[in-house]
Every structure is written in structure tokens, then in C-alpha cells.
Hints:
This protein is of the alpha/beta class. The chain has helices at 78-85, 95-104, 107-123, 139-150, 172-187, 205-217, 234-240, 254-261, 279-285, 292-297, 318-328, 333-347, 374-377, and strands at residues 3-13, 24-33, 36-42, 51-54, 59-62, 64-66, 126-129, 131-132, 156-161, 193-198, 221-226, 245-248, 274-277, 302-304, 364-367, 384-388. Strand 2 and strand 3 (36-42) form a beta hairpin. Helix 5 (172-187) runs parallel beside helix 6 (205-217). It binds N-(iminomethyl)-L-glutamic acid (NIG) and fe (iii) ion (FE). N-(iminomethyl)-L-glutamic acid binds at residues 92, 94-95, 98, 197, 225, 228, 281, 307, 309-313.
Amino acid sequence: MSSLLVDNIGELVTNGAGEGPLGIRRNAAVLVEEGRVVWVGPSPYAPAADRRLDAGGAAVLPGFVDSHAHLVFAGDRAAEFAARMAGQPYTGGGIRTTVGATRAATDNELRATVRRLRGEALRQGTTTMEIKSGYGLTVADEARSLRIAAESSTETTFLGAHVVPAEYADRPDDYVSLVCGPMLAAATPYAKWVDVFCERGAFDVDHARAILACGQAAGLGVRIHANQLGPGAGVRLGVELDAASVDHCTHLSDADVDALAGTAHSDGSGTRTVATLLPGAEFSTRSPYPDARRLLDAGVTVALATDCNPGSSYTSSMPFCVALAVREMRMTPAEAVWAATAGGARALRRDDIGVLTPGARADLVVLDAPSYLHLAYRPGVPLIRQVMRNGVTP
Ligand code: NIG
Ligand code: FE
């Protein structure tokens, strides 16, 4: 069994015991054995190890946990982006364009896109990435999307209810039956979660409830796209169904915030249902940003994720999302970094990632900077010097 000591860490973000909400330790070291953190402490007192990685006084933090991404697709929608930047609104209608391209693609073309984007994210510090289906929307295309997603992540999500595809446009009830029946059955072997785009123009709250309940009965965990384009009952539906996460949360009423706050754990460790904010989507659709401060002040656990997809948010960069959240969503740099690491882990109901404490997976990032603050302070700068997943450099 070979051990690795990462030492001479100027500022270690543990998200566990230590200074402030990020559990900061200075002049620290982390000992890794068999892909796990086994010891964290002051660098001068570190135990001996077979190998050593000298962080050179830089900051080290848990790898980013991107809990919301749509990587299985073909083509891009750069022209739609250009039209939006010239004043067109985002409606979600472009999803059907990507569905057409995805259905026409070969398995290997889809696989290459997933690998390219997963690699891109990894180089920017993302050590865990959730991947959704949702651009196939037939039984066979949703199943193959998830099969390909499962090659790159264990956090896979069935999003057969992304939009009603054109061939079902005048019979949405029939499409919901297909999603709950044969499509779910074909998806379940490759999926851990079920998700629905609950929004005007996609699925209403009754259809969303039916689909999420079927997924739950099949053993999948619940997550939901809610309150992105306007107010609605999606967030409250997520709470009703014990969703791990309600995602977007751009348009929230006081009742929505209260419902999320009502899922608080009794030990003060935050809420059972996490609000996942996706500022890349507001950036790329020129929409108002969600108000993270309002959620945080109400005690709601907040996660940040990229929403990486060819329509509303074609970024794989968690550092970019951290910077946006700080500048535009009233989060402090510490809150944003927590949300992009431990928050993402909570949104996936994981306690083995998003933290650097004994027992956790050795998923970490060495920055080209002395502090996590630089992730927001130096936006757009490639600050990820080294990434480690399961204790090895991927
Ligand atoms: O999360 N809102 C629904 N789904 C994606 C957008 C997908 C697309 O435009 O292709 C999202 O923003
Ligand atoms: Fe999304």
C-alpha cells in the first residue's frame, strides 16, 4: 500500500474542522492512502509517506462537485447564443434542436463529446460531475445517453422529461406515460437520479409530480429543474418529494424559500433539500441572477453548479461559476467555494466528497494561488495547478 503526503499547503480548505465555515488550516499537510484522506494536520508534524507532493505554500481545496450538467448531446447552438446577445429571449425551445442532432449522432460521437467536456471540467478542478440525459427523448436514445453518461460518472440522471418532443406535441399525456413506463424501465439500470424540467413550455407540476414519483418508486433519487424562467410550484414540489436538490431557483416566492428552509436538519447542518444555483445559465441567457443571499439568510443549503449544456450555459468551469456567484449573487467568496464543493456533495447526498477530512476521498485541487479567495478575485485566470482524484493525478 503506497502512501502520498501533500505537504507545505499554505491554506487548506477542509470544509471540516478548522477556521471559519471553510475549516481552513494553515501550513497544513494531507496524508493519502488507498485513495482516501487518512490524516490532516500541521505540515511540520506530518507522518512519513512513500511519496511527497510539495504544494509550495499554495492553497489546496476539495475538488469541485458539479452536481448539474447535461453532457450527452450533439452539435452546438452558438447561433442561438448570438441571437440572445442581440436581444432575443431564452425560452428553452432550442432544446428540440439539440434533440434532433443527438438522435442523429452515433454512440461514438456522443461518447467523444462527453469525454471532451468531462476532461475540460477536470482540468478546471471538477472531480465529481453529475451527468443528465435529456436530449434523446425516445426509449432507445435516453437509454444510450445514460449508458454513455455512466461510462464517465456514477452520478447519472434520467431527464426523459426535458421537453415534450415534437412527435408528441399534441399528446403530452401519452409522452408522460412513455416516460413513466418503457423509458424509465430502460433508463433505470444506468441512472441514479430522476429529474424533470418543470416550467411553462416543458412539464407542468402535475406531470412533473407523476414522473418524479414513478422514478422514486423505481428506486431513483429525485432532483428537479424548477423556477428557472418564471415563478411556479416546482420548488415546492421538490420539497414535497424530498428532492436532494431543486435546481435554478431564479424566481422564488417567500413560500418557496420557507418550504426549503422547512427541510432543515435538526442538528443545524443545513437543509435536506439543497437549492442548486446555476449562474452560468443566467450569464448565457442574459437573465437576472438568483438571490443566493436570501436563501443563505433563511438557512437554506446552497450549491453551485455549471448546468453545462449547449443551450443555456455552455461552460464547464466551476471557477467561473464561483466568480459569478460572488460578483452577482451576493455570496461571499467563502460561501461560493463551500457551495461549489461541500454544497455540491450535499446536493448529491454524498458525504465522502466535497471535504478533506479523514475518511473522505482524496479528491483535491492545488491552486496556482495562495488562497481560495483568488478564485473570485482573479476571474477567468487558469488557477488550477494540479488535480487529484482518488489520490491519483488523472
Ligand atoms: O438547465 N432548463 C432546462 N434545461 C437546460 C437547458 C437546456 C437547453 O437549452 O438545451 C437548463 O438550463
Ligand atoms: Fe439544467
